[in-house]
TrEMBL record:
The chain crosses the membrane at residues 6-23, 30-47. Residues 85-142 form the NfeD-like C-terminal domain. It holds the Pfam family NfeD. Keywords: Membrane, Transmembrane, Transmembrane helix. PANTHER family: INNER MEMBRANE PROTEIN YBBJ. SUPFAM superfamilies: NfeD domain-like. This is NfeD family protein. It is a multi-pass membrane protein. It comes from Streptomyces luteolifulvus. It is found in: Membrane. One of its GO terms (cellular component) is plasma membrane.
Length: 143
């Protein structure tokens, strides 16, 4: 075992940390692997074992402390581009057939949709411009 240089062991450790990174998709393993590569570089330049372990610890902890919160923030963000029925919410439509609490028809995004009024006591007449507040199945809820 003494015949193999320390930097090789650090690279083996980095590869070993890469396996659970791929299997579990936990980025922390990748950050530890980068720390092991940094320690391998220190070992390659002749740094002692204390320097190697210190570099491994500092680089790994720094990456976890900096990258993990950024990744968590990006993971929590909703997509910027709304698609499907989510893209239709908030759009304006034109009433084609009288719309009230029980139903009617509107033209929304170039298509004819069934619609009903959000306020069941309110009716919209042909030609009125309305706002789509929600989509329930194939029915647009308007106001």
């Amino acid at each position: 075992m003494n015949d193999i240089d320390a930097w090789v062991w650090w690279l083996v450790g980095a590869a070993a940390l890469g396996i659970p990174l791929v299997v579990t998709a936990m980025p922390e393993f990748g950050m530890l692997a980068v720390g092991a590569v940094a320690a391998a570089i220190v070992a390659g330049f002749g740094g002692g074992i204390v320097a190697q372990v210190l570099v491994f610890a500092v680089v790994s902890v720094a990456l976890i402390a900096v990258v993990r919160p950024i990744a968590a923030r990006h993971r929590a963000q909703r997509p910027q581009l709304a698609t499907g029925v989510d893209a239709l919410k908030g759009k304006q439509a034109v009433v084609l057939e009288r719309v009230d609490g029980s139903g009617g028809r509107i033209k929304l995004a170039g298509e004819v949709w069934s619609a009903r009024s959000l306020d069941t006591g309110r009716a919209y007449e042909v030609g009125d411009e309305v706002d789509v507040v929600d989509i329930e199945g194939a029915t647009a809820i308007i106001m």
